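Exercise 7b. Backbone tokens:
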């Protein structure tokens, strides 16, 4: 199907297995980000930035979060493997509820060429800030 610009328009109805796999990948990416935070906080603990056993006990929640996100991603992968090929969902309509454009684009399978490239990306090359 072509849109009014003559470009091929992707159908918003995609196999459920693809939608589940994309969601699993997104959750796994969140788990990776949480694990990175866990490493950062671990370094802060070693440096003495957190005092007392109560703080360290509370930091275990971050480890639980990482494990939970990985478990949800595994579950979504399992659902994806078991989804019947004929099952389809409208990812475009579902993506309209997402407030983060880059997340919506990944979950709907949009490629870098089809994304809106407005805005700037700050990659924090100078992080951590010099003292």
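Sequence design result:
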């Amino acid at each position: 199907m072509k849109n009014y610009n003559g470009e091929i328009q992707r159908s918003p109805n995609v196999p459920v297995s693809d939608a589940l796999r994309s969601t699993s990948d997104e959750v796994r990416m969140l788990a990776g980000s949480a694990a990175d935070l866990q490493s950062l906080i671990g370094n802060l603990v070693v440096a003495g930035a957190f005092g007392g056993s109560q703080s360290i006990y509370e930091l275990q929640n971050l480890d639980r979060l990482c494990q939970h996100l990985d478990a949800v991603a595994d579950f979504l992968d399992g659902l994806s493997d078991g989804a019947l090929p004929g099952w389809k969902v409208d990812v475009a309509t579902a993506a309209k509820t997402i407030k983060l454009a880059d997340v919506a684009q990944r979950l709907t399978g949009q490629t870098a060429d089809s994304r809106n490239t407005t805005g700037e990306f700050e990659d924090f090359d100078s992080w951590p800030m010099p003292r």
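Instructor comment: Confidence is low (pLDDT under 50) at residues 1-9, 113-131. The chain is about 55% helix and 5% strand.
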